[in-house]
Amino acid sequence: MRASTVRSGRTEPGASMPAHTRGGVGARIAYYRSVMRPKLTQQQLAVAACLSVGAIRKIEQGERRPGDATLEAIAAALGVDPSRLRSDRDPAHTPVHESLPALSAALAAYDIPEDIAVRPAHELRLAVEAAAQWRLAAQYTRIVRQLPVLLGELACAFHQAPAHGRAELAKLMVSAYRSADAVAYKFGARDLSARLIDLMRWIAPEAEDPLLAASVAYVRTETFFAARAHAPGLRALEQAIDAAPSRSVRTLQPSDASSAPIRSR
């Protein structure tokens, strides 16, 4: 959904901006600060970003160009991805684009992961949930920096787990792949996005969750529409709908709630 709304103290990912705010980093910072609820003053933004109010004022007025570290601190304080503030820069050289090769490398070893130290299951779950929240908040820089290591850990944990412990890890892997896919799709890496969706389809049956499998089938249709292959995309969408379990035969489970973010973009 691309509604231009504000919720829970941060701008919604799809919030549109007036044309006059699109010209520079400072104008974009001022815009996002103004639509926060409650609205942030320059002083409050400075405190939240650990900067001086004078620095914030100069940046917004275009007298100072912030470095990457400063911009990321401001973006974190505003609850938006730094790419939203950088959009006046060369889109081919954002930190997200520069981090995509590491993400690709992590995917290449999905079935032969390195023997690495893996965090406990509850920590992996929290990391996956955080990535899903970053995706819904369009904080793509955070995702692309954290996912390569997390995906390696999940792959290692899955291949080392006993059969009875694989279903939960498979669900976490689907969610993590989905978060990575959002970044790839958003930043134009269509082949990487398709690869991630293939991995979601590969691991989804291991989760033993019909609703999750149907959600992955639904997500797959984006590859058809990205390629403008509308007819097969429509067939795939119809098949995903047909494969979805009926509420009449399946009681809503806690895992259903976790699959809802998988379907959203």
Can you describe what's shown?
By secondary structure, the protein is mostly helical. It has two domains: 6-89, lambda repressor-like DNA-binding domains (434 Repressor (Amino-terminal Domain), Orthogonal Bundle), CATH 1.10.260; 93-263, no CATH class. It is built from 13 helices and two strands. The chain has helices at residues 25-35, 42-48, 53-60, 68-78, 82-86, 95-108, 121-136, 140-160, 166-186, 190-203, 210-226, 230-243, 254-263, and strands at 6-7, 10-11. The protein has a two-stranded antiparallel sheet. Strand 1 (6-7) and strand 2 form a beta hairpin. Helix 7 (121-136) runs antiparallel to helix 8. The termini are close together. Residues 1-22 and 248-258 have low confidence and may be disordered.
Order of helices and strands: EEHHHHHHHHHHHHH
**Portion of residues within helices:** 55-70%
Please give the alpha-carbon distance between the first and last residues: 7 Å
Strand order of the largest sheet: 1-2
Apparent shape: globular
Average pLDDT number: 82
**How many whole angstroms does the radius of gyration measure?**
20 Å
Structural class call reads: mainly alpha
Count all strands and give the number.
Answer: 2
The fraction of residues in strands falls at: under 5%
